[in-house]
UniProtKB/TrEMBL annotation, chain A:
GO terms for molecular function: 4 iron, 4 sulfur cluster binding; FMN binding; metal ion binding; NADH dehydrogenase (ubiquinone) activity. This is Formate dehydrogenase beta subunit. Keywords: 4Fe-4S, Iron, Iron-sulfur, Metal-binding. Coiled coil: none annotated. It comes from Antarcticimicrobium sediminis. It holds the Pfam family NADH_4Fe-4S.
From TrEMBL, chain B:
It comes from Antarcticimicrobium sediminis. This is Formate dehydrogenase subunit gamma. Keywords: 2Fe-2S, Iron, Iron-sulfur, Metal-binding. [2Fe-2S] cluster binds at C91, C96, C132, C136. Pfam families: 2Fe-2S_thioredx (PF01257). Its cofactor is [2Fe-2S] cluster. CDD domains: TRX_Fd_NuoE_FDH_gamma. SUPFAM superfamilies: Thioredoxin-like (SSF52833). InterPro entries: NADP_DH_HndA-like (IPR028431), NuoE-like (IPR002023), NuoE_N (IPR041921), Thioredoxin-like_sf (IPR036249).
Length: 505, 166
């Protein structure tokens, strides 16, 4: 009997380790032969710890499982969820980037290969740099870190830059609230990221990579480090990638708790051992990036999607999605929802379907009030905008952004003035300090919102002006986009900002 | 094979010696851009970056002491004084707020009688805000000395705080 228990940190935060121990202890006590396999998570976080049992007829799910459920689980009397992949939340997905996440032991390279791993790299090894970049262009893949810049075009700039040293930097700073896909794939399928980075190296002529991982993710740091060591021992990384004669070295670097270091130039400064202050562009990192050399900076998901593009072909990938949003997006459903977790699907699903059907509405059972899409710099959406299809241009057109595709749901107990205040406060705490509208403006923003809260209606136009100034005068999106959540909260939920609010309560 | 960034020597005593710090610096100095890895190595050994480290780092990297301080102060992670015996971090970010994170944080601060970044009078616990732990689908989230907790309610947090002596 094979038993699968996730080692993902969300599963662990909900008690998965204790369940794994209880399973082994109980099995030993019974003299029962079990094979206990620790996997990544399937992404159905409301079911974690989600245990899967395979008695030879496929993987049946049980969850959430507590240690006290273990005897019944082994007796075969515990009520289950049926075949895991038939659970509607899972069955409705198109899992390309996350195909192996939750399925296999993340550090078992043999299993990785048995499930399609390294096929993309083997194919890329037979192609020229130009052909590799063309394949990525053809796939329509756009940056999953927020800005949605076409990945193939970025790679081409680096490929054509003349330099004796180039770098691939993976942005695993994932600071946005409501997002956890980078963490999930690193903890659940780290070889996939390694494979994507090697292909990026082959395509651009870079022979060294860094994974810049936030310090708030200790489990991901550990798994990534182990995976890199295994990949070196297996000859996947190193001076002779899979015997091809091409070299690629890879290192993990740990961040130090600064949100702004997710911004690519700030990240590069941090990597170089400097203060994480944002750099002016130009020069583009693609031409003068890490240590002054041409550098690809890509999000984890952008890079981790590259292997499947090479395995299945760019055209197959581009068949999914709509308009200029090609392929699939791992959407992270968070906050006050019944079914929270990771939902990978082709672009195009309306926001309302995600919130009401996939996420099942709020966990509290109260009406949905607002949904923040795209992290702390993303706009709030009201239910009246739920027909907006999930895509880059579509969200832009609705006055928002998809960012790293986190959606955070709030019920009607949310106070949107408080959320706007928090956005300003967060910007003030995390500002790199380079531009005044961001550094000082965010502090003024908090004060101005406090005045509104005290009933000073004259402060509302001040807040609007301030947001305008921050938008216009900020070098990066931290100062430049903080007005999105603030202004959307103000515009969509004026009652929460009404001068009569205090009196009415 | 490149160095793994987390490796740290086990210092023999809590009181940092120049030799120990020099060894920690040495363990990372071969990396490209070694300053953050050095600071992490020292902090993971001592729980903070002791005063005596800055001049040693500055000398090893051929930068000014002011630069070392400038970098240290930029990042929320690095501390120049020791924290309490346990560090409790509570997520303040939006997804956790959507499920009662702010009330949980307020209750925790009140229970400990300190403000954010404060340490209890008995030195048991330092409490810090954190902006997202990647547990946004199972908030409110917290981290106690590196162990993650999801769906934390006040009773659970109270239990933990009692366990760690606060
Ligand atoms: C304040 C700020 C924070 C950011 N944080 C992240 C992050 O955590 N992860 C990420 O991949 N991109 C982040 N970005 C976007 C990066 O600057 C950059 O666009 C991205 O890493 C490029 O990779 P991609 O093209 O694969 O998306 C951030 C940008 C800003 C302005
Ligand atoms: S907008 Fe803010 S974070 Fe961005 S560069 Fe300016 S000061 Fe730094
Ligand atoms: S918002 Fe709290 S863990 Fe992400």
């Amino acid at each position: 009997m094979k038993i699968y228990v996730p080692r993902d940190s969300a599963a662990k935060a909900l008690g998965a380790d204790a369940v794994a121990v209880a399973l082994q202890v109980e099995a030993d006590k019974r003299g029962l032969e079990i094979e206990l396999i620790r996997t990544g998570t399937r992404g159905m976080i409301w079911l974690e710890p989600l245990v899967e049992v395979d008695r030879g007829t496929g993987r049946e799910g049980f969850g959430p499982v507590a240690p006290s459920d273990v005897p019944a689980l082994l007796d075969g009397t515990l009520a289950g969820l049926g075949p895991v992949e038939e659970i509607p939340f899972f069955a409705r997905q198109t899992r390309l980037t996350f195909a192996r996440c939750g399925l296999i032991d993340p550090l078992n390279l043999t299993e990785y290969e048995a499930h399609g791993g390294l096929a993309g790299l083997r194919r890329a090894l037979g192609l020229s740099g130009e052909a590799i970049v063309d394949e990525v262009k053809l796939s329509g893949l756009r940056g999953r870190g927020g800005a949605g810049f076409p990945t193939g075009i970025k790679w081409d700039t680096v490929r054509m830059a003349k330099a004796d040293r180039k770098y691939i930097v993976c942005n695993a700073d994932e600071g946005d609230s409501g997002t956890f896909a980078d963490r999930m794939i690193i903890e659940g399928d780290p070889f996939c990221l390694i494979e994507g980075m090697i292909i990026a190296g082959l395509g651009t002529g870079a022979t060294k990579g860094f994974v810049y991982l936030r310090s708030e993710y200790p489990d991901a740091i550990a798994v990534m480090g182990e995976a890199i060591e295994i990949a070196y021992r297996a000859g996947v990384l190193g001076g002779d990638v899979l015997g091809s004669g091409s070299a690629f070295d890879l290192e993990v670097r740990v961040g130090a708790g600064a949100y702004v270091c997710g911004e690519e130039t700030s990240l590069l400064n941090s990597l170089e051992g400097k203060r994480g202050v944002v750099r002016a562009k130009p020069p583009l990192p693609a031409l003068e990036g890490a240590f002054g050399h041409p550098t690809v900076v890509n999000n984890v998901l952008s890079l981790a999607t590259v292997p499947v593009i090479f395995e299945k072909g760019a055209a197959a990938y581009a068949d999914f999605g709509m308009g200029r949003s090609k392929g699939t997006m791992p959407i992270q459903i968070a906050g006050n929802v019944k079914y929270g977790g990771l939902f990978e699907t082709a672009f195009g699903l309306p926001l309302g379907d995600l919130v009401n059907e996939i996420a099942g509405g709020t966990a509290s059972g109260r009406p949905v009030k607002a949904v923040q899409v795209g992290g702390p710099l993303g706009a709030y959406f009201a239910p009246s905008q739920f027909d907006t299809p999930f895509g880059y241009e579509e969200f832009d057109g609705a006055g928002g952004l998809i960012g790293h595709a986190g959606i955070v749901v709030f019920d009607d107990s949310a106070d949107m003035l408080k959320m706007a205040r928090f956005a300003m406060e967060f910007c003030a705490v995390e500002s790199c300090g380079k531009c005044t509208p961001c550094r000082i403006g965010a502090v003024r923003g908090v004060e101005t919102i406090d005045r509104i809260a005290q009933g000073d209606a004259a402060a509302v136009p001040l807040l609007t002006d301030l947001c305008e100034t921050m938008k216009e005068g900020s070098l990066c999106a931290l100062g430049g986009f903080t007005p999105y959540p603030v202004m959307s909260a103000l515009t969509l939920f004026p009652d929460d900002f009404a001068a009569t609010k205090e009196a009415a309560e | 094979m490149p160095h793994t960034p987390q490796q740290s020597l086990q210092p023999s005593a809590q009181q940092p010696s120049t030799a120990e710090i020099a060894a920690l610096i040495d363990s990372q100095i071969g990396l490209e851009g070694p300053l953050l890895p050095i600071l992490h190595a020292i902090q993971s050994a001592y729980g903070h970056v002791p005063q005596v480290a800055a001049p040693l780092i500055a000398e090893a990297l051929n930068i000014s002491r002011a630069e070392v301080h400038g970098v240290m102060s930029f990042y929320h992670d690095f501390r120049d004084v020791p924290a309490g015996r346990h560090v409790v971090r509570i997520c303040r970010a939006e997804a956790c707020q959507a499920v009662g994170g702010a009330a949980l944080a307020d209750a925790a601060l009140e229970r400990l009688g300190v403000a954010w970044h404060g340490t209890t009078a008995n030195g048991a616990v330092t409490i810090e805000p954190v902006y997202c732990l990647g547990l946004c689908a199972c908030g409110p989230a917290a981290m106690v000395d590196g162990a993650l907790l999801g769906r934390v309610d006040f009773d659970r947090l109270d239990e933990i705080l009692t366990e760690v002596g606060a």
